[in-house]
Write a structure and sequence with these properties.
Blueprint (H helix, E strand, L loop, with lengths): L13 H14 L5 H8 L3 H13 L5 E4 L4 E4 L13 H12 L10 H13 L9 H7 L12 H13 L1 E7 L8 E13 L2 E8 L4 E5 L4 E10 L8 H4 L13 E7 L1 H8 L8 E4 L5 E7 L3 H9 L4 E5 L1 H18 L8
Antiparallel strand pairs: 1-2, 3-4, 3-7, 4-5, 5-6, 8-10, 8-11, 9-10
Helix pairs in contact: 2-3, 10-11
Length: about 325
């Protein structure tokens, strides 16, 4: 007769196991690895690993007594050093797990969820929270999510982490035919809900910004590159309004109608921003930017409730954009193509 498969018992969470080991040591019975493994229904290897963690990471005075052939505390230990967490911190942990939606399907999802699960296992039993209420009252929703090829995104993430050179097939906006690029991926960033790859483009001899959604193919060249000491994403984007950066310096001034002034006040749009309330309820926003590309689109998006005041380059660009917008809608009928 064929042997029945042996059902292995489910392992207890690490914190629970260590608390059981602490109780056995505190009782003073000199338990050894074999005894503890049988009590906890785990392997002796797991017991050794737990004891090492308790001694080296938690600082518990554990030693092996050769005379009694078992473990003991060499000093008085009044209580096991439990993982302390407040209800507010637990609530934040649950919210963080729900916020992982934007990483679903990417190579970051598994390690992030694994880290959260480990923290959840370490939580004490004394903290309680109505999880049903959290599910009903908090959610995250993202519109216009970028369409990513998860296989390509995974290649980008791994190559960036390991400093491996890539050959990518990239299509710029409005360009019919894609281009082959050899790049050194420096940094992969999620900015305002969208992913961007910052990489050194060998053909252009400069750091360029790539949208992963426009990368049609990516493969490693077999070469690696040293970590760039001079590259800093924070410095690169310090004076940008989004991801566009240039060797320019613009003092930007925008005035907003009273109807949207409160909305502008409620957000920090840029690190250099200065807000000034005007007498008629309008609001003036000043910023120092290195590029006008994204702020021009932003002003136009307010549908006439925002007015560009400075610099003249921005005023002219917004005026031309508004002219084209009006021309395209002039005489347009519903349903007309």
């Amino acid at each position: 007769m064929p042997k029945k498969p042996v059902s292995m018992p489910l392992s207890r969470p690490p914190l629970e196991r260590m608390q059981r080991i602490h109780q056995a040591l505190h009782a003073g019975g000199f338990p050894n690895a074999n005894f503890l493994a049988a009590e906890l229904e785990v392997t002796t290897k797991t017991v050794y690993r737990d004891i090492d963690f308790m001694r080296d990471r938690l600082g518990l005075p554990i030693d092996f007594d050769k005379l009694h052939n078992g473990y003991c505390y060499t000093e008085e230990v009044s209580a096991f050093p439990t993982f302390q967490i407040t209800e507010g911190e637990l609530f934040a942990l649950i919210v963080a797990e729900k916020a992982l939606h934007q990483y679903r399907g990417t190579s970051f999802e598994k390690p992030l969820l694994s880290a959260i699960r480990k923290m959840e296992q370490a939580l004490p039993d004394t903290i309680s929270l109505n999880l049903a209420n959290v599910e009903q009252t908090i959610s995250f929703r993202t519109t216009a999510e970028p369409v990513l090829n998860l296989g390509i995104f995974d290649t980008l993430a791994k190559a960036t982490a390991a400093r491996r050179q890539l050959e990518i097939t990239y299509r710029k906006p409005g360009q019919a035919a894609p281009e082959r690029r050899i790049v050194d991926p420096y940094h992969l960033a999620n900015i305002n809900g969208e992913w961007f790859l910052f990489a050194f483009d060998h053909a252009r001899k400069d750091v360029r910004t790539f949208a992963p959604a426009r990368i049609l193919a990516a493969k490693e060249t077999g070469k690696t590159f040293p970590r760039p000491q001079k590259f800093s994403l924070e410095k690169r984007l310090r004076d940008s309004f989004g991801v566009h950066s240039a060797e320019g310096e613009f003092a930007v001034c925008i005035r907003f109608d009273a109807s949207i002034a409160d909305y502008i006040r409620e957000k920090r749009w840029h690190a250099s921003q200065q807000l000034t309330d005007l007498r008629d309820g309008r609001l003036e926003l000043r910023m120092k930017l290195s590029s006008l590309v994204e702020v021009e689109r932003w002003v136009l998006a307010w549908a006439g409730r925002a007015v560009a005041v400075e610099p003249q380059e921005l005023v002219a660009a917004v005026r031309e954009g508004a002219r084209q917008l009006a021309a395209r809608h002039e005489g347009a009928q519903p349903g007309q193509r």
